[in-house]
Amino acid sequence: MLYGALVLWFFLTLLSMVYVIWDQLTNTPSMRIMTLAWALIILYTGPLGLFFYFLSCRQPFKGSHDEFINVHWKQALGSMIHCVAGDATAIIIMAIFLTLFSISNGLEMIIEYIAAYLFGLFIFQALFMRSMFNSYKEAVKNTLFAETISMNFVMCGMLPTMFILAHLFPISTDPYTLFFWGRMSLATIIAAIVAYPVNAWMVKKGIKHGMMSRTQDTNNAHNQHQSKMSHEVQHQKHEQHEQHEQHEQHEQHEQHEQHEQHEQHEQHEQHEQNTHHTHKMKNKALSLNHQISLAVLSYALLIIVIWLTSFVIPIKF
Q1: What does the alpha-carbon distance between residue 196 and residue 216 come to, in Å, rounded to a whole number?
Q2: Angle, to 10 degrees, between the axis of helix 243-283 and the axis of helix 215-240?
Q3: For residue 30, which phi and psi values (nearest 5 degrees)?
Q4: How far is CA 30 from the centre of its chain?
Q5: CB 181, CB 46: distance < 8 Å
Q6: CA distance 233 to 224
Q7: Choosing a second label site near 229 at 20 to 30 A (CA), which of 19, 38, 64, 310?
């Protein structure tokens, strides 16, 4: 019964993942890092992830993505998706690797936490979001606090679920079985639920980014529109058989188009600079002491959660 349910779940997961990737490439102009994040989240959360993709990210019609995602809960969901995708991926990979060794579950928790934290901070946050900052070093510095807080809440949901299920269903520790992937899927879903509120708070405070669109898609749409207009103008001129006038108007059109593209390019650069400036200014809204205090509290919460878990299953180091 359970095995059949898992087969159906992962069949639907595969279909969901294929659809999301197709939609991201052909319709919804998300940032490429979010395309990757959504693909990973759908892999771990299946049809449930697809449901929230339709609610929060999929572009309903061309040119509407920015307006569609401009809602706080959708921005917060995008922030959470980005975080959970990276952290869960590192934990799952490390969990598979650690099956090659015989270690205590307490030590396994520590190793998986370290792997997820390093991958989440240095790869999924700083490296993949490098374009938002002036340098990779600055990206690490500016995402350190957000990754620490978000990561600890992800772990508060994921680690207890993983290890309680592993204790109750020992077969789920074998990565060659669907039970392992079912355990990881449930742990990721619980982690996303636990991590959402703190991500919503950080997005509201401007500490973390939310859902974003690719600006080049807007540019491509603009260029396609300009090309269409140019074709219509040339067709009208051809019907009038006025070669000299057509040549002059064509030059004027090109100059006008170049002028518009130049202005658009300048506005895009100014928008990026403003985004960088706003991001850094808002990140400084919390003092260093405040950030340290919140980070310590998040670690305290994680320790309490692990301590409570030890009353359900034995945790050994």
Answers
A1: 29
A2: 170
A3: -70, 160
A4: 10
A5: no
A6: 14
A7: 64
Tens of pLDDT along 288-300? Answer: 999 999 999 999 9
Return all residues near 79 (Cβ < 8 A) that are at least 6 apart.
150, 199, 200, 202, 203, 208, 209, 210, 211
* CB-CB contact of 116 with 90 (8 Å): yes
Q: Exposed, middle or buried: residue 116 (CB in 10 Å: 0-12, 13-18, 19+)?
A: buried
The β-bridge partners of 213 are 30
Look at phi and psi of residue 52 and say left if phi exceeds 0, alpha if psi is from -120 to 50, else beta.
alpha
- State which amino acid sits at residue 43: L
pTM as predicted:
0.79
Q: Quick: pLDDT tens for 125-183.
A: 888 888 888 999 999 999 999 999 999 999 999 999 999 999 999 999 999 999 999 99
Task: For residues 94 and 129, give the distance between their C-alpha atoms in angstroms, rounded to a whole number.
Answer: 23
Instruction: Note every long-range contact of 225-234, with CB atoms under 8 Å and residues 24 or more positions apart, other chains counting.
Output: 226/257, 226/260, 230/257
Q: What amino acid occupies position 75?
A: Q
In the structure encoding, which two tokens stand for residue 79, read together? 């922030």
Tokens of 94: 């490390």
